[in-house]
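Just curious: can you write a single protein's sequence together with how it folds?
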Amino acid sequence: MQAPSQFRLQNIQQQQPKIPPAVRSRYRKFDLYRDVSQFKFIDDHAIQVAQVVHASFRDLIWHLCYSVSLHSELDRARAIFRWMTAQNLQTISFQNVQPNTPEDVLTSFKNKKPSTYARIFETMCRFSGLQCVVLTGFAKGLDYRPGDKFKGTDYNHSWNAVYIDENWYLVDSHWATRYLVSERNKPEDLVYEYDDFYFLTDPEQLIYSHWAQKAEWQLLSHPLTLAEFEDLPLVKSYFFRCGMYFMSHQKGVVQMKNGKVAVTVGFVKPTNFTYKIVSAENGDETYQGHKLKSYCLQETRENRVTFIIRAPKSGAFYVTIFGQLLTGEIGIKNVFTASAEYKMIADKSASDAAPLPNCSDSNWGPGIPVAQLGLEPSYSDSVIPTKDGKIHIEFKKTKPVYLLCKLRKPGMKEEDLERCVNEADQGDKVIVTGSLPQPGEYGLEIYGNDPAKDGDTFTHICQYFVHYASPNEQAQAFYQESPDRRMQTPGQQTAMLKNGGYRPGVAGVTSGVANVHVKGPGVDQTDFDDLPPPPPELLQQQYLYGTTPQHGVYASVAQPQGQGAVTFRPGAGATDLPPPQKAGVSVIPTSSKPIKVEKRTLGQEPPAAPPTFKLIPVKSEQETAPPPKPAAGHQGIPSLEAIDRQVLHTVDDHAIQVSKSEHKNVRELVWDLIYSKNITNEIEKCRVIFRWLATKNLKEMNFDKVEKGSPEEILMGLKTGKTTYAMVFDTMCNYAGLHSKIISGYAKGADYRPGQKFTPGSNQHSWNAVYIYGTWCLIDAHWAARRIIGKQATTEEFHYQLDEYFFLPDTHQLIYTHFPDDPKWQLLERPVTLEEFENMPHMKPQFFKFGLEFVSHRTAVIYGRGEINLRLRYPAHRITVAFNFSIQFENGVEEYKGVKLNRYGLQESVGGIASFRLRLPQRGSYIIYIYAKEDTPENKDTVYAQVCEYKIVQEEVGSPEPEPFPPCAYLNWGQGGTFQRYGLSTYQNTAVIHTREGKAELQIRISRPMQFMAKLKNNKFSDSELEGYIMTRVVGSTAYFNVTAPARGEYGCEIYANDPATEGTTLYHVAQYLIECHEDVKAVPLPKLPAGYLGAQPKFNEFGLSTKSHHDPVVHLETNTVEIHFDTIQDMRVTANLIAVDDGKEKECTDYVFTQIKGSAVYFIVHLPQIGFYKLQLYAVPANDTSQQLPGVYNYLINCKKVTKRVYPFPKQYAQWKEGCFMPEPLVLHKDLGQDEVLIRVGIPKAAAVAIVAGDEWIHLKANPQGLWEGKIPVREHMGKNAKITLNANYGGDPTNYATLLEYTV
């Protein structure tokens, strides 16, 4: 592709030879983007460009960055990065390559000339308008192992820092292409694959592998020396992808003591781990026929994994840690990836060195598989110490599960160990006991079976290391190196284990991570003790080498330590540190005492000035005011903060009272306003004039005598438009003893539109500079009194209200709306040009009130191709801000094809970043208005205030045409303000949830009983059609929302909630999520269930009922039978109803559920005749309740996926059967039994006699020693005759009076 003739290559280094200072960016990578899909258009474009041969470098740059108008610096940097990771630099060529040209740089890599990826990246950036530098230093590459030393200044690698939107970011395009998959660090183990980690890598992460020789380019608040860098462990990019962090050892070389050590690594994403150990001397993985790996015990708990090693010999070993993210992502390989590596130096062999028992897994102790089976083990530790050889572990069941145990010991046969261990199923728990044959080390393996889906297959779920030894021997064992056990005696350990295991912080080095919390800009202080921690992108590491964090393992890096409060300075052209206050700047005195204010009525006569009072203009005393210059430092700048709040209130009130009076002349006015109250503080003088001017209706003001050239003429000129607020303010300051200056220039006022060009005579405005205590300050009294509420600029829509922002605003902020004709009156260190002013976003005062900053787009006009992601930062650590937006075409039209343009936007706020995801439907120009308000219960009815606006030029849209987002209730996605006010929490921090196999689940933790309802929304399906594709239920302290997507597409999930104890039945919107299904699925809709249908109903807890077998009201079965148990605290009458649900139609199947009561336990035996969904509705009432109404107490939804056996109807159950009766056998009678007679055993409390009636035959049952009635029923002679066989009981009194309890039909 050839560049057009008018295109000119420009090297930014020649235009801006001065490189901005190296300062760590204010933004994290996560702030800029959270998903690489944001760059899909750019990435696809860069890959396509990489496949094209270009005649010249000029053609290449035009094709890559300018043919598609990549206007933002981030987009251009991304395009270059992605091109380099897709381009084979060994084959690139140009037609005419001259020395010392860009073509020479790009082809030198192929021609074996001195060049690097970094040099190429720098060249391409500079010719694309991006400042970029090459950084050289040492990198821990292919041949590096922990403990290696770098020699001299023979630096082995180079990478880049690129300047994007006035912030430096680190990039390594070479390592992004050369992605190491294997842990072997050998060339043959490399595959060339793109790794996004090395694009805009956070400095706190890159320092583990890249050390810049120039310390400032490490971009750290505390740069590392080379020796400190060498000491760091070897870390791969996957380490950070898993959100891993070092907890026990922050140095790469670990000295073992007595041949033992324990290394602990934390992680914040669900991850599986394994490891590898090799000899540092020869790379061998074995020692004396045993794998070195078998000398290490790995245990995983909560958010950390520990590797406890006992060396079989002295010497050095390399220990590599592998991770496997449990992402659930489709297409992700089920492999472990090298993440970190240590060098362990053993001083000697461990005294107890021996291979661990040969068990199935590398991880010891209960983990994720145990939890997935709904088991709660009494031992959470991986090690079970026993001094007498006895083992006792209990697994509490929350659903039906079977367990099987195996014992392992080196040198002993499996069959000899079988009799030493036993598992006893006691219904609600399984007790594992063992008696070990001799002292030593054993492995206890636990296998589990979920009868609902596993059939007869048992799967390994966990294993324990059992140590049968004396307490003294246990105290010296290698596993005592674990930080959880250090400083604990074996007896204490056993006690801790029986109480649910250790908690982090019990011992020694883990005390700093007992309560994981996040504290910093963008994240409220949150305790994650009972909540899975958020993704690591929100929790970048701040600590490095040699330290254990004392305030939680994560901290925000928005403000680097030791650099002070970094402030964003748009006018300075960079992110600057506050300079120290310069000598000679006047010190602002403290404010005076409060003014005594006399209340006035409108038109009240003001006090007269004394005859001796004279107006003396300051300009006649000192004609030349000090020259304009920027304020000297941030401290000591005049502001309202320098005035005592009580004094400020009285000054303002005095100005308001004075505005009610009419004065004969300016002399009387100035006396009344200032000198009558002896106001001498310069800030207070300025304030009282400003407040009077913003309050007084100047168009109704009159003076007795108005002479030409008098101050009265200036004030009266506002009536005829001959004067301005700035002139009046200047006049008043002049007679108040303050130097003032009228500033004229351009202003982005009510009729301004983003991207508008300023020409002489248009958008003219005037404001003031006033000299206060040695500093020139800015004031716009006109705009302060004329604040516009509303987005349109017609005169009729003006609303007048005092806007405090325009009193002494920050000069770096006012430049966004006010551009003086004389650049000196910008009062900035580096004045901006008119072109820069025109390109600045249009910001309103509220933008600064809320402390907002631009993260992504810093120009008034955005050029879009595909989706656009706008991002603002807000100070979430000190204020809760809610955002909103509106979109319209530039001509004011707000709809496209009958759909509001707002529907093409999605707003969400996470971690102090407000993002606006836009996918505009057609090419053209749009305006987006962004609004904000403080989101507190007190402000729930407060209207949003506009904070900024952009013009968007959509140059290209995707194909097919973008669809609007689902039609949800709000434009804000994710958690709403009510979510936090209800005390809800969730691991799902972002608003977008991706399905897997068409399904998605959202979990919300609740702190008190709550009621929920959820709705699905879609552009193609109606609400009623989607009712069956979302299910809500509450289990314990967690609310579950399960979505089954009916087809590929996007679905809005609206969640409503209330506190039924205080809010009745009204539900409030708390959150909404975007469910994205990118799979072709064939979904079966769930039955349509009303809100609150599933699970416990109000009477459930009131009656003292509790679930024993199935705590989750949704039961998925791989078989067609299930038995559900309840516990009671009083005698109950119960019944059940089973309803088959098929395609919206319901059919009662009451004959297929059987109720039994045994003591305090209630059993519901359910047989399902076919595949499908069933509603199981349970009813109960205390036995002493005489009413005939049984209220619903619990509802289940059963999903029968497979019919594994033929089932038959149960006998009909009469009322008295449900008052404590139970029957071990037979539950059903049918012809397939193949028996002449059937044994019956039944328990009937309080029965005096029991009989079976078969046809005309009475068969009396006899009571057995166990308290059951038993006998035999003749069945063959009745089969096929539709005969009735009944179970009857006599309860005393009339011996001929029997009540029917059950009725079989055969």
In short: The CA atoms of residues 1278 and 1306 lie 7 Å apart.
